[in-house]
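Researcher: Good morning. I'm working through a list of sequences from a screen, and I'd like to move beyond sequence-only analysis. For each chain I'm collecting a predicted structure so we can compare shapes side by side. This is the next one on the list. No need for commentary yet; just the structure.
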Amino acid sequence: MANNPRSGAVRKLKKGPLKGTGGLGRKALEGKGPTPKADERTYHKAFKSKELSERSAAKRAGTSASPRRNSGPKGKAMEELVTGRNSVLEALRAAIPAKALYVAVRIEMDERVRESIKLATERGIPLLEAHKPELDRLTEDAVHQGLVLQIPPYEYEDAVDTASEIIAKWKKGHIANAPLIVALDGITDTRNLGAIIRSVSAFSGHAVIVPERRSAGVTAAAWKTSAGAAVRVPVAKAPNLNRAIGAFQKMGFFVLGLDGDGDVSLPDLTLAQEPVCIVVGSEGKGLSRLVRENCDQIVSIPIDSAMESLNASMAVGISLYEISRQRAAKA
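Model: Good morning. Structure tokens for this chain:
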């Protein structure tokens, strides 16, 4: 037996150095960078507290839409989620564009739910059934009552391109009245924006211009306040409002700033028949200094001395009415 050992019982040692990993495990030893802040980690309670405070601030601002976190490329516009039975029904009645209506499984039906489903079906909006935990995750635990409306981000046009197209159509005779646009300077209330869009549509205006920064955008609240007028009136963005104003003037627009201390009273305006861009500032601060300096005229609306100022959307509505009245009288 000693002369014939079992071949499997003998350990054969290899000659020379053994093989290594070839660096395959090197990445596992590398660091992953600095630890993110607590409120940037989705699983941390600080992140949830931050989200809750942001939603509370949105509700205090008067909007029931819950913006979805942007998980796409940097700079991509975020979609909105309108939550709650009353809010969803009002949004559908206002014909706000929507991508889908989420309905909870085994939802308790009432008149609001029935009408919401009916309106969505008539408009061809997809109906998606989801369980409550899924809706909770989708809305980030906002109160949804089993109904969630998904709204696509608004596609803004370029301000200068929009104004140029309007001028070209007017010169070709495709637009009867002289071009009339409204630019906003520091308007951050989405309901004000919606009301202005509605006034522009009512008095034959052609576009609304908003700055890229520090300005209200076309959200669900703006759609709702515009009462569907946002479908007819394009809203364009200007990276720099002062540069856009300069471009408008080169095209032939007369830029009129609205301010209580204006040089010209609105009834005495003589430029109503020309292409006009009305610029309105916020109710508190008014027109910014540079915008005011770049305007061709500063126009004031005569009001009772007991009233210090008018709401921005009201001031725009009155100005548009007066221009429309003067144009009709001239025609």
